[in-house]
């Protein structure tokens, strides 16, 4: 015997026309993932068998089934559209369970979108109130937008969906859905529905739908009727009235039981305990705010102290190394310990007495600009901590020398693998390169969106990508980086900082930089990793075609795989992923910065091969110059 739990919660949105309910339907999107264990398979099949037997009491639109014990417990949920009749909802659920039994025979998790009338999902892990975007589909309508109305359609659709997203997120545990329409022209309208699963919090519902909208804007802004389905939320649009809005708005939410996570009796709050919790939370917030203000002021004072005194640096968060200790660690900065040299810096390998390996960057204190660069690196890395950023251990100042001490990364920088070193390139198989690409993107996303300071790197290139012992990338060299306000994404500079090959035209020509400047650099870097050559050394044909022009010509001719490094093996088996990366790179190097994706969108495109990516246009003309860049 077994127990089947059914939690009755809510009716939800899923759109399109009412379909037949004969139990023999196909999903317009169905994904099967993973492999089942025997115990899990038994629990799941038992649930599906009970559902298809038509004996389960199904009397509202959101269903939660579970059976078994961890780690082989099976979870199943089903969500029906709010305007769907009870009979149709039941029939769809029965048909879905039967469909999954036949198609996803060995998968341990799956999701199906049943012609948008409902969603059916099962998993080996809890599903409710879980943030998950792995199993998703994007549908691009077959109708291109009429040329005269493309911009108007984009604007009207965005405004409509933005309003519906807020309305859905503002719902309650009984209904998080919204539907509406807007006229674009006399012959063109947009009809749309947004939905969140009722167990999600309002804030995550909003986040999920906002992410879905951004994806649609990237992939499908020139199409009518695009839709995206994500576990937990969806957006669907059409160019015809697939749903009677008058009927939709006239249907009140069903009297369903709100979803409340079960709480064991022994852990329930005692009377009055909530007051203490509130007081505790408020106290923590006050202390945190006070500490933040204190550290902010101290950081500002530190910066002023650096300006006043060339021989002393005071910093709370990093260790100030003794010069003699650094000198001993690097064998008095011996040439045998030198890792690299730049115009204003040298990098040495060292070892501290405890055996810790370090990398020491020596800045020659020649002028105030060098001192500002040192100051900038310390102040930025005080506030930046991420697995894909190099870790600053401390610093040291000694007369005319300024030293920055970092963690040592044994595989040095990416350019060592791409620059005239076939032996090292052999270590960069496609799996490693793809992991490097993803790691760089994650580090850049942290700088742009998730760190305490919004940082624009302004010098993203292979020599500033370091590789640890496991070939995981870490972005380094923040001397030329700049931080902007949280709500600021761009700026301007009278002094151009960076490397010409990686600069977008708006920065190299006009001094205008933004987060999209880093995206451009990332696109160049992505192409370099794919082709195995650095842009400054790449030359194709007697006229010396540059890397971006070469990649674009091959993409346009349908022979984009010619761009791939010929030293890679099993190219054919990675063909789809390689072509996807080339396409993303082409989007990143578009001339107009507004046409480039954000780095968050890049990560989404890299990790979701079910979505269709917008076609790129001709890339920007790269600035090649003999002038010296700072």
UniProtKB/TrEMBL annotation:
**Keyword entries, A-Z:** ATP-binding, Glycoprotein, Kinase, Membrane, Nucleotide-binding, Receptor, Repeat, Serine/threonine-protein kinase, Signal, Transferase, Transmembrane, Transmembrane helix
| Glycoprotein as UniProt keyword | yes
**How is this protein situated with respect to the membrane?**
Single-pass membrane protein
Primary location class: membrane
Task: Point out the coiled-coil segments of this chain.
Answer: none
Ranges for domain Gnk2-homologous: 22-127, 135-242
Record-linked PROSITE patterns: GNK2, PROTEIN_KINASE_DOM, PROTEIN_KINASE_ST
What is the name of the protein in this document? Cysteine-rich receptor-like protein kinase 8 isoform X1
Q: Which species expresses this protein natively?
A: Spinacia oleracea (Spinach)
């Amino acid at each position: 015997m077994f127990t089947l739990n059914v939690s009755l919660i809510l009716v939800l949105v899923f759109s399109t026309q009412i379909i037949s309910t004969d139990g023999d339907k196909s999903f317009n999107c169905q994904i099967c993932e993973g492999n089942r264990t025997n115990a899990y398979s038994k629990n799941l099949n038992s649930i599906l068998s009970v559902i298809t037997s038509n004996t389960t009491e199904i009397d509202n639109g959101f269903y939660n089934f579970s059976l078994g014990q961890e780690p082989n417990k099976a979870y199943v949920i089903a969500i029906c559209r709010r305007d769907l009749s009870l009979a149709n909802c039941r029939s769809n659920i029965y048909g879905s369970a039967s469909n999954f039994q036949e198609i996803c025979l060995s998968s341990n998790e799956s999701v199906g979108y049943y012609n948008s009338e409902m969603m059916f999902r099962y998993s080996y892990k809890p599903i409710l109130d879980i943030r998950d975007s792995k199993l998703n589909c994007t549908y691009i309508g077959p109708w291109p937008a009429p040329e005269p109305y493309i911009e108007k359609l984009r604007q009207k659709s965005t405004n409509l969906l933005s309003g519906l997203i807020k309305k859905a997120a503002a719902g309650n545990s009984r209904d998080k859905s919204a539907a509406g329409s807007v006229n674009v022209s006399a012959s063109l309208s947009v009809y749309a529905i947004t939905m969140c699963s009722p167990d999600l919090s309002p804030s995550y519902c909003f986040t999920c739908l906002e992410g879905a909208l951004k994806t649609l804007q990237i992939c499908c802004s020139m199409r009518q009727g695009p839709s995206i389905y994500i576990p937990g939320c969806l957006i669907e649009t059409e160019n015809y009235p697939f749903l009677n809005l008058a009927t939709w708005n006239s249907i009140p939410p069903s009297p369903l039981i709100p979803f409340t996570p079960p709480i064991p009796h022994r852990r329930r709050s005692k009377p009055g305990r909530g007051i203490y919790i509130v007081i505790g939370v408020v106290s923590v917030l006050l202390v945190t705010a006070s500490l933040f203000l204190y550290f902010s002021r101290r950081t500002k004072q530190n910066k002023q102290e650096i300006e006043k005194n060339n021989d002393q640096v005071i910093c709370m968060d990093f260790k100030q190394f003794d010069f003699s200790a650094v000198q001993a660690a690097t064998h008095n900065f011996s040439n045998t310990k030198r890792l690299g040299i730049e115009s204003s810096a040298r990098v040495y390998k060292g070892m501290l007495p405890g055996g810790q390996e370090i990398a020491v960057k020596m800045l020659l204190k020649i002028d105030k600009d060098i001192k500002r660069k040192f100051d900038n690196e310390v102040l930025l890395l005080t506030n930046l901590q991420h697995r894909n950023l190099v870790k600053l251990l401390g610093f040291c100042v000694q007369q005319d020398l300024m030293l920055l001490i970092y963690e040592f990364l044994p595989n040095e920088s990416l350019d060592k693998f791409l620059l005239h070193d076939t032996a090292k390139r052999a270590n960069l198989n496609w799996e490693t390169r793809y992991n490097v690409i993803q790691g760089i993107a994650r580090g850049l996303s942290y700088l742009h969106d998730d760190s305490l300071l919004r940082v624009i790197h302004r010098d993203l290139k292979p020599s500033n990508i370091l590789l640890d012992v496991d070939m995981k990338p870490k972005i380094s060299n923040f001397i030329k980086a700049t931080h902007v306000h949280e709500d600021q994404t761009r700026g301007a500079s009278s002094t151009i900082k960076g490397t010409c090959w990686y600069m977008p035209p708006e920065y190299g020509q006009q001094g205008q930089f933004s987060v999209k400047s880093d995206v451009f650099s990332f696109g160049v870097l992505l192409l370099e990793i794919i082709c195995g050559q650095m842009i400054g050394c790449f030359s194709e044909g007697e006229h010396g075609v540059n890397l971006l022009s070469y990649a674009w010509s091959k993409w346009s001719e349908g022979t984009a795989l010619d761009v791939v490094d010929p030293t890679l093996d099993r190219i054919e088996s990675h063909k789809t992923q390689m072509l996807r990366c080339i396409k993303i790179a082409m989007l990143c190097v578009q001339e107009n910065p507004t046409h480039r994706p954000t780095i968050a969108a890049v990560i989404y495109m890299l990790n979701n091969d079910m979505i269709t990516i917008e076609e790129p246009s001709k890339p920007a003309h790269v600035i090649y110059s003999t002038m010296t860049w700072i």
